[in-house]
Design brief:
Blueprint (H helix, E strand, L loop, with lengths): L9 H25 L5 H15 L2 E4 L3 E4 L3 H8 L1 H19 L7 H24 L6 H29 L5 H33 L9 H4 L11
Antiparallel strand pairs: 1-2
Length: 226
């Protein structure tokens, strides 16, 4: 999903850059309200995990690449806007330190993975909870489905930007991107569900988007009194 330099037209790159700046600015405002010292370590752990998974790239037709996204996991653990901020920071570091994704396409990459990926995943999960039973099984199933969808939506957004820029025809890049990312999305769903399930079992209070019925730790049971 990392678009390199020269693949987007100046207009598409500029529009995506403005959208990314606006989204990150609002995410920073949310962080000032929601982020406290107790959640900073989790923020760092999630950022490190997303960074590591996104560095594993698979070549895709048309000069693009595919990789695990990590946006849904970040959204589930941190909430949509903090996840958007984490994805943006990761993408900036990848761009300038590892040349993964072009500088001129940085805004588009933030939009495709941070804005579209994390925000769509977060709000889809929140919306699904209003319709589905508030059980562990339903929650994890929702996380799995949304993980797959987030990858597909990000791949579709990337394809559309490339097509609008005149780089690759949509009927060429879209099937290639969706075909590869459909498989990658399955892997992403499995990894995300496994990670969320483990955190729910150990520290349910760290799962920001879990229903209250699941996020409240069970009461401690002390030894029987004589």
């Amino acid at each position: 999903l990392h678009i390199p330099d020269g693949f987007l037209s100046p207009g598409v790159a500029a529009a995506a850059g403005l959208a990314a700046i606006a989204a990150v600015a609002y995410a920073l405002r949310v962080a000032n309200v929601e982020l406290d010292e107790s959640r900073v370590p989790l923020l760092g752990v999630v950022a490190a995990f997303v960074f590591a998974t996104q560095m594993l790239n698979f070549p895709v037709a048309g000069g693009t690449s595919g990789h695990l996204l990590g946006a849904t996991l970040a959204a589930v653990l941190l909430g949509p806007w903090l996840a958007c901020l984490v994805l943006a920071v990761v993408l900036v570091v990848q761009c300038f330190a590892f040349a993964d994704g072009g500088v001129s396409a940085l805004g588009a990459n933030v939009v495709n993975m941070g804005v579209v990926g994390a925000l769509a995943a977060g709000y889809l999960i929140v919306g699904a909870q209003k319709l589905l039973p508030r059980t562990r099984t339903a929650f994890l199933a929702t996380v799995g489905v949304v993980s797959w969808l987030a990858v597909m939506v990000g791949a579709a957004a990337t394809s559309i930007q490339l097509a609008i820029s005149g780089t690759i025809p949509l009927d060429t890049v879209l099937p290639a991107m969706l075909g590869v990312h459909g498989l990658i999305g399955i892997g992403e769903a499995i990894i995300t569900v496994a990670a969320v399930s483990a955190v729910l079992a150990a520290r349910p209070d760290l799962v920001a988007l879990a229903p209250k019925e699941l996020s409240t730790p069970p009461p401690l049971v002390g030894p029987p009194q004589p």
